[in-house]
Amino acid sequence: MSPILSKKAKVALAVGTIILLESEKKKKRVWVKEWLQKREQFTHLRLLKCIQSCEPLDVINYLRMDYDAFQELLMLVKPLIEKKNTLFREAVSVEERLLATLRFLATGRSYEDLKFSCIISPQLLGRIIPETCRAIYNCLRKKYLCIPSKEEEWLKVAEGFNNMWQFENCLGAVDGKHIKQPPGSGSYYYNYKGFFSVVLFAIENANYEFTYLSCRTNGRISDGGVIKKTDFYNLLITDSLKLPQPVNMRGIQNKLPFVFIGDEAFSLMTNFMTPYRQTNSIGYEEKCFNYRLCRARRVVGNAFGIMANRFRIFLTPIATKVDTVDDIVMACCVLHNCLRRKSTSYIQPSNIDTEDIISGTVLIGDMHMNGELISLDVSRQGSPTIDAKMIRNGYKEYYNNADYLLVKISTY
C-alpha cells in the first residue's frame, strides 16, 4: 500500500470515528428527566400529609375517601403492587402508586397531565395505574362485590327492595351505561350513537350497591343485546342462579316468580320485568305498575350517578388502551361498594334523585350537575312470551289491589 493511500485511509478513519462519536452522543439520553428525579421533593404525597394534618375533611375531596380508608386500602394492595429498588434507581413507593391511581380515577386527567402532580412519567403511569386498579379489584371484590349464590341471600335482597322501595320479590335493578373510549379505539368499539365505547352492565341491590358487573361488551352491540353477552344472562335462562321459588301474592290467583327489573332497553322475560310501553292507549293500571317499577329501578340510575361524580374518569373518554378499561371500571365499582358500606357520608340526600310524594314529581339530585353516563336506548326486539306477559299482568293486578294499597300506604 502506498504512503499516500495509507495517509488518506488514516484521515478517513479519523473522520469516521468523529462522526460515530457525535452520533452516539446525540442518541444518548438521560435515564429520566431531571425534574422527575425530584419526586420526593415535589410529589403530591407531601401535599396529602399536609392536608391530613391541617384540613382532614379535604382529604375526602382529594382522594374520594378519608385518610383512614386510604391507609386501610394501602395495606390491602401493598403486597400486590410493591416494587423493589434497583442499583440504578429507587422504585416508586406503594403510597405514590395508590395515590396516583386514586387521583386518576377521581379527576379523569390524562397520564400526560397527571405526571406534573405525581412526578411520575406518563409511560410509567401507564403501567402503574392499570396494575393498581387490578390490585384494588382483586383485594375488594370477594367482600364487596358478589352476586348472591344461595336462596336466603336472594331473599335478603328482595326484602331490601320491599322495605325501601315497596316493590316485592325484586332481586335487583338492572341497567347499562356507555363508557366512552378515546377516538381511534377501533371500529369494533364504534357505536351507533357516533362515538367509541364499551358498555358497563350492572345489577344493583336496594342500597345502591352493585351485585353484578360486566364491562366486556363493545359499543357496537345493540342496547337490547347487551344483556345476552353477559354471564348473568346465561345463568338466568338456564335456571342456574338458585333463585327462590315463586310465591303466593295477596289477591292473586297464580304464584308469581321473583324477578329482576329494568327499563325499556331490555326485553320482558319471566324473571325480568320491564315497564309497559308508554302509548296513548296505556291505562291507569299499567301506569300504576310502571310507577312502582320505575320507583324501584331508580336505585341503579342513582348509583351510576353517584359513582360517576365520585370518580370522574367516567365523565370523559378513558384515554387508555382498550384492554385496560375493564380494570379501571371494575376498580371504581368495587370502591363505590366499599365506600358505600364504610362511610355514612358517602351518599348525601341531596346527591340522589328523590320523590316528592305529595306532588308525585321527581326531585333531581346534585349528581346530574357535572354530567352523567350515557344510557342505553329503548330495545326494539321481538315480542315477549305469553308467560312473561302473564307474570307482568299478575304484578300489575297486585299493585292495583285495594288490599295491597291499604297495607303499604303507611310506608310512604
UniProtKB/TrEMBL annotation:
Domain called DDE Tnp4: residue spans: 179-337
Main location per the UniProt record: nucleus
Quote one Gene Ontology molecular function term: metal ion binding
Q: Record keywords: Metal-binding included?
A: yes
Cellular compartment(s): Nucleus
Q: Any one cellular component term from GO for this entry? A: nucleus
Report whether Phosphoprotein shows up as a keyword of the record.
Answer: no
* InterPro entries attached to this UniProt entry: HARBI1-like, HARBI1_dom
Q: Which UniProt keywords apply?
A: Hydrolase, Metal-binding, Nuclease, Nucleus
* Family under the similarity heading: Belongs to the HARBI1 family.
The protein in question is named DDE Tnp4 domain-containing protein
The scientific name of the source species is Acanthoscelides obtectus (Bean weevil)
* The organism's taxonomic lineage, starting at the top: Eukaryota, Metazoa, Ecdysozoa, Arthropoda, Hexapoda
